[in-house]
Design goal:
The protein has three helices and 13 strands, in the order ααβαββββββββββββ. By secondary structure, the chain is of the alpha+beta class. The N and C termini lie far apart (62 Å).
């Protein structure tokens, strides 16, 4: 028997000893149990992620307002807007499971406050187009979204008309088992500052 054959035989003997060892079976049992616990936990607590982003754009550029008195004017309900601006809130469901109506704790809607009155809800768009997206209402100075379903991989965008530059962009929620993060934040002029991807 040469050295290679001797080494192979020695390895086989060690593997046979390991296979018959009680320690191996204990380790395997613990590993299988840990995998079972993880799978059960993931099934009971599916991953739901909501990423949101605000964007803001003036309807009339400042230099256009200063050109003459015959520039475009925007009015809603007979009220002239001095600095009309569109603010868009984009909600992206990036998790593996839907954000269902049940995730809204006691039916509490998501609230969006901009620090100034929201004049009008201009549009609600969804991706894919056939998705519904949670409904929204205006109450006082706040946009209230939901409760409602936002499917996994779906996006909903709410475009709002305001008068002036919002002093802040705030989204408050009481969602259960949903990780909520801002994609970026906006500075006071409405320019995005990257915060997360």
């Amino acid at each position: 028997m040469n050295a290679n054959e001797s080494a192979a035989a020695s390895l086989l003997d060690r593997l046979d000893t390991l296979w018959e060892s009680d320690k191996l079976w204990v380790v395997l049992a613990v590993l299988v149990a840990a995998i079972g616990v993880y799978v059960t936990y993931r099934a009971a607590h599916p991953r739901r992620r909501l990423v949101y982003a605000f964007t803001s754009a003036p309807l009339i550029q400042r230099h256009q307002r200063d050109l003459s008195s015959n520039v475009i004017r925007v009015s809603v309900g007979g009220r002239n807007l001095a600095d009309p601006r569109l603010v868009t809130l984009r909600l992206e469901s990036r998790g593996t499971k839907d954000i269902a109506t049940a995730q809204f704790d006691n039916g509490t809607p998501i609230e969006v406050a901009l620090g100034l009155p929201i004049v009008e809800i201009v549009s609600l768009e969804t991706e894919p187009p056939h998705a519904q997206g949670p409904t929204c209402t205006l109450q006082d100075r706040v946009l209230r979204i939901g409760p409602g379903r936002l499917g996994a991989g779906e996006t909903v965008s709410y475009t709002l008309l305001v008068d002036g530059t919002p002093p802040h962009y705030r989204l408050r929620h009481q969602l259960i088992d949903v990780q909520v993060r801002a994609k970026w934040r906006l500075d006071r002029t409405g320019e995005p500052i990257d915060e997360c991807t």
